[in-house]
């Protein structure tokens, strides 16, 4: 078999060169299409269901949210395991699918089952799916450098301008904000005044909720003109909340300011984001979508940030906190350097021991072709170019070089011996 293959190759040299050139070109195309990342994605194929019910204890969350969801999501096909986690005000359900299941097919099946499971949950409790990313999807962190702007304004700028702009980048699943204060209206109620006016906490909550709304009416015509009737009732400042009526007490309206005060404040925080011990900052974490090219997504994010930065207030700029593309570029540069070094060393070794440049050329040609075939297989099996796979290719280069040197030296020696025998005859 080997002799027939060698004989065929010798007789059809042009065909062999064309096939080699085709494989090399295919390999270059595979390198450009293959997702590039620094860290191999070994996370499980999972879909996360997140449910928020603020103010409830972990036991209540477990009994009324987590348990109904877990028990009703078990019938989904191709599920390996379901895990539930309950904490104060939040519930997490992790649905682990088989490795060969498409992640978007899995998310569709979970959504179908959630439509029924939601009926078993308390009123106004809505479960949502987590982003379609993986455990290694945090590819880029940034923060705002804004001297003189308070943390609440920075967080508002991040949540209502920067975040929405970066989420439009192809390949981005989510932009998670961190740091700063989330602005909110806070009602500080006086229990003695509430008792005097016989007002309950639920009445205050319902009164504020129903008063923060726009309503629409019908239209009427006058002087050949049509007018649309609207009721504008959205809250715009603290005074609007203070004037909200929550109840009538002896035909006298009880307003919010009669039973307490309204102030602007920040939401409860469980931590801060500090930058090198120099103070707290506000920024975001970019989560990459499943199966995307991390290097391309990061480059697209940087271009988008340059556009967004032009619309920021004066004195506010972006600063990078974590950039995985640096590690990716170093990993690729390491493989390129290894390939070039081994080609140089092999050329010197072959020339010194064989004194034949054609033998060295044979080995030098097989190195890039072997590497390109490796990338073809990576693309075919859906494996990304990461530290592990690139390191494997770098190690395999040494084996290819050793085999090439042995084969060329053996062929060169055999041909020399045959030539000496022919000359002696």
Sheet with most strands: strand arrangement = 2-3-1-4
Tell the overall outline: elongated
Domain count: the total is 3
What CATH calls the topology of the largest domain is Multidrug efflux transporter AcrB transmembrane fold
Tell me which CATH architecture of the largest domain applies here: Up-down Bundle
Order of helices and strands: HHEHEEHEEHEEHHEEHEEHEEHEHHH
Number of DSSP strand runs: 14
Main sheet record: 4 strands, antiparallel
Give the structural class.
Answer: alpha+beta
Task: Please give the CATH class of the largest domain.
Answer: Mainly Alpha
The CATH superfamily of the largest domain is known as Multidrug efflux transporter AcrB transmembrane domain
Our measurement of the CA-to-CA distance between the termini, rounded to an integer number of angstroms, reads 31 Å
User: Taking all residues together, what is the mean pLDDT?
Assistant: 85
Helix residue percentage: 40-55%
Over the alpha carbons, how many angstroms does the gyration radius reach? 33 Å
Please indicate the percent range of residues in DSSP E strands (runs of 2 or more): 15-25%
What is the helix tally? 13
Q: Extract low-pLDDT stretches.
A: none
